[in-house]
Amino acid sequence: MQNRIFLSPPWVGEPERAAVAAAFDSGYVAPCGPMVDQFDRRLGALADQSAAAVSSGTAALDLLMEEFAVGPDTAVLASTLTFIATVGPAWHRGAQPIFIDADPLTGTISLPLLEKALRAVARRRTPTRVLVLAADIYGQTCDYDGLESLCSRYGATLIVDAAESVGATCRGRPAGHAGAAAVYSFNGNKLVTTSGGGAVLSRNPEIVQRARWRAQQARENKVWYEHCEVGYNYRMSNLLAAVGCAQLDRLPEIVRRKRKIFDFYLALFCGDKRPGHRVAPYPCGDFTEPTRWLSVFLFPTACVRDAVAARLAAADIECRPVWKPLHLQPVFKTCRVYGGEVAEDFFRRGLCLPSGAGLTRTQLKRIAEAIRG
Ligand SMILES: Cc1ncc(COP(=O)(O)O)c(C=O)c1O
């Protein structure tokens, strides 16, 4: 295992170790404490809105599904090209997601297809509450302005799943700064990690305060345990929040390194101009400044992609196909999809390449040699 190159391992070290030790020594070895408060404040500053750290990105989405009372009668329109967690909490509440294809030029949710779906929902005889779950992907954002204007035109609530875009911007706005609310993830493979963690974000502080309260068992402000609502235990540990704060100190350096890795792959692939050999970066809208959390490329055919993946696997280097679209997942086979061919094509030809911020020159050389064959 020593020699294995992983797809996106955390970049952690002495600063994180020292932060955990300090939090441990402070006595706050609990899912609350000064580091959680500090992490909330710093996330709020990063995202330019209110923020509450919780135990995972999925938990953050679950809290938002509770906030917006999502149920079997809610029309949930969601990106199809994303991780299952984007729609998992809505699904558990009985909603049947309607999937929207990716745009071929931006790689994120297609606005024309979303509009088509919104129009169809608006035509329903019974008025339906509509929730749009738009997922940022691989370190780049959706078109927030386009999404907001569509959602306000059709009276839909917009939630941005910014689990993968921490540190990115959309026309100067920080990732997740759109719609009614958004979530971040600090899972071990993410750009900023707390080993496991997430956050609820919103420009409306009341939404964030309610999420924080529900994450703490929805306890009323009494000396005894009093509950007018049944909550959740989705709190973040003070020890993990300390890791998160140390990671935020390094965020600019992590992004700088990720972008350098992407440029390395770009130079590697773009030198090959032979017909049938052209490799393109995963599409990205000009409205977003991506972090390149993962370096993702589209190969000319599925066959070429599979050959490259096989070579990397043989050299003990981890890589992964682009997300399998949710509308192709067996569990969602009864769900409707608008379009779907673009995401299917990305899934067939796309490959996520090793992107760890700690990748060394020697490792990059090894990856290049494996790819070149
Ligand atoms: C798009 C997306 N949404 C949600 C999540 C869930 O986050 P977590 O693993 O922190 O629950 C992830 C990643 O794990 C993700 O990539």
The molecules bound to the chains, other than polymers, are: pyridoxal-5'-phosphate
For the largest beta sheet, what order do the strands appear in spatially? 1-9-8-5-4-2-3-14
Strand content: 15-25%
CATH topology of the largest domain: Aspartate Aminotransferase, domain 2
Q: What percentage of residues falls in helices of 4 or more residues?
A: 25-40%
Q: In angstroms, what is the radius of gyration?
A: 21 Å
User: What letter string, H or E per element, gives the SSE order?
Assistant: HHEHEHEHEHEEEEEHHEEEHEEHEH
Keywords:
globular, 8-stranded mixed β-sheet, 373 residues, single chain, Aspartate Aminotransferase, domain 2, 11 helices, Aspartate Aminotransferase, domain 1
Topology record:
Elements (H helix, E strand, L loop, with lengths): L13 H12 L8 H14 L2 E5 L2 H11 L6 E6 L8 H5 L5 E3 L10 H12 L6 E7 L8 H10 L3 E5 L7 E2 L2 E2 L6 E5 L12 E5 L2 H11 L22 H33 L9 E2 L6 E2 L5 E4 L3 H13 L5 E2 L15 E2 L2 H9 E4 L7 H12 L1
Parallel strand pairs: 2-3, 2-4, 3-14, 4-5, 5-8
Antiparallel strand pairs: 1-9, 6-7, 6-11, 8-9, 10-12, 12-15, 13-15
Helix pairs in contact: 1-8, 2-8, 3-7, 5-6, 9-11
Bound molecules: pyridoxal-5'-phosphate.
Pyridoxal-5'-phosphate binds next to α3.
